[in-house]
Amino acid sequence: MMAVYEPSTKVLRLNREFERIVGWTTEEARHIDLMEKCYPDPQYREQVRQHMMSPQPGWLDLEMTTKDGRTIETSWVNIRLADEARLGIGIEIGDRKQQLHVLGTLYDLAAFVGRARGPAEIHEASVDAMLAATGAKRASLLVFDADGVMRFKAWRGLSDRYRAAVEGHSPWSTSDEDPPPVLVPDVLAEPDLVPLRAVIAGEGIRALAFVPLVYQRRLLGKFMLYYDTVHAFSDEEIHLAATIAHHAAFGLERARAESAIADLLQRERVSRTAAEAAERRARLLAEVSRVLSSSLDHATTLRQIARLAVPEFADGCSVDLLTADGTTQRLAMTHRDPRKEALGWELWRRYPPRPHHPVQRTLREGKARLFAPTDDAELEALAHDAEHLAMMRALETRSAMTVPLVAHDRVLGALLFITGVESGRIYTEHDVELAEELARRAGQAIENARLYSEVETASRAKDDFLAMLAHELRNPLGVVVNALAVLEHSDGGDEGAGRARHLIRRQVQHLTRLLDDLLDVARITRGRVDLRPERLDLRVAVDLAVEAQRHRVDAKGQTLDVRMASEPVPVSGDPARLQQVVGNLLSNACKYTPAGGRIRLALGIDGGEAVLRVEDDGVGIPADRLDAIFDPFTQLEPGLARTEGGLGIGLTLVRQLVELHGGTVRASSAGPGRGAEFVVRLPVAAGRVAGAARRETVAPSLPSRSIILIEDNSAARDALALALGLAGHRVCSAATGREGIALARRERAEVVLIDIGLPDIDGFAVCRELREALGTEPVLVALSGYGQPEDRERSAQAGFDGHVVKPVEPDELMCLVTDFARRRC
N or C: which end of the chain has fewer CB within 10 A? Predict the structure, then answer.
């Protein structure tokens, strides 16, 4: 008999044997006090209860009252279950020795299934218990597999031939719920076994029983009992077999649940480990990407990547690059153990890798390689000599892989990752995937750095060419400017000659402005423009720009309407550059507006912004070109542009200079032939600025000075010396640096004008020698066709008081000289 009850003795379940012997069913027992019914005497009942609750109760003989009032002699043992419930196992006391043996078997089985380590142990133990309890000579246990086929799990006394022949046979299907046992007292008399009769008889089996293995009405499998002779099955025998089957089913289901929980926990651990690894790898790749994007110096970047890989991904990492001549350069070597890092560098210096070295093979084949250099045979194949072998063993490498650095199908180098005793890690193909992704990003970064270097080289070459071109063009322009000054001093009053000189001067100014614009675009594009911001009234810059462009407007008979705010328009900016912005917009409007057209300029403040509008009624702009007109060398009407002149970079400069001042510029047009409008917006500066007075255009009176001119170009030297002489200055000139130094020492002039590009020594050397010889007395001015910020800085460092870019009007030159002298004082 078996009874499962709570610690309060409330009944949970009674088996069929209990119901048969005592009389109450499980359902009835749940609604009554079964303890009171079975043990009416309170004192006796309390003794029974104490026995049931004892942690190690042992066997106890009890008198029980049945449902029909009979008193029966029983013996009980109680087992504490995992959920604190109790399992009572009892028997009617008859043949006590046999019954005690059977009860011991049941007790041992019940205790064993609670601690079994897996289904296999339960299979074996339950078959042994079935033989001991039933007296059968042979027995087996079969369980449904995933396909619903009965498979042998444990057996006693059966041949391989028999098991192969009958495996899969079952009187039930997997859908049958809680089926009853099937008893076959005589196999020869059972019609359902005719197909298997020969096999069964051949095994010496005459009687058998199918005992279902059921858990919560669900069929799990079956026990088989085998007898050599015809056998009459008793109720007690079948009840014992069913009890053992119940214990086995309970144990198997518990083992299955525990296994499922263990599998779930393992999957969770694997998933968590994979997620953590994925997170670490994502962090590593993100950090690698950050480092790769932070610098265009690929050598420094790759060294940082090697340091990032250790110890997150490797115990050691090296980076090798292919050079132009096909040799290998080791760029980086790092290890979490500083001694092994030093050893790695020593290995590289003393023992360059042979062609069959993994790094060399990766460089040659462009494929990743995963290897474990742990056995002597592999190390000996790589070693140059015994000392080399000993040094490689000292690295204690456990696992390694090499991956190529590739860009555009070209191998640039290789990364070597190693693990050792420090981490104990062994690389897998999954690690190779990460290493290849890391190498792919690094290879792309190297290629980007190379392309950027090429672009930078080309850009520098372009800038150098533009600077040289400007220098070479400025020299002849300087000659023309100075020659014009000479002609104007000797003006005989001829109106035609005066007009010709005027036209020449305008064209020289135009050429000079084109050169300035071309160099400005190059400087701004490379971020090398030199702004000198100050707080100013934007009206002044607009006024000066209008004055400078007035002659162009008047020459075409155009009307220029200017409307400016009555109050100051304070902004923070470079006055010269802002004047350049306004001048370029007016020049553009004048160029693309026909003769007699109208140009409108308005300046005011709107919502915290200074707003400049330049509008014309000229050729207009197609809608699809409104953005493109700000691109370098873009011209809407090439024929008109050729007539008017220009390189198509004026608006490019406008946008770049406005953006450098924190503003915006926008173009709009109703379409071709309907004019255009350009709107510039700049942040208004905090506070107020005083309205600046309009600049006087009357040339100041300049004192006569003694001047030494050092210039190797004879035409430029003669023209400037003549122009300065006609302006009332005393001029001596020299064609070389040495001649100029000697002349300056001898004449002690007030001003020395020095060309930078002299044939013997450059102007910087001349300046330094004159400063050493003459001190700060003369005003030293550099004359050059180069006018970039670094050129002016170099002149200042050499000791010049000022730097003047050719061409320059003689009067303007002397104004600058006067200004240089005043600032020095």
Answer: C
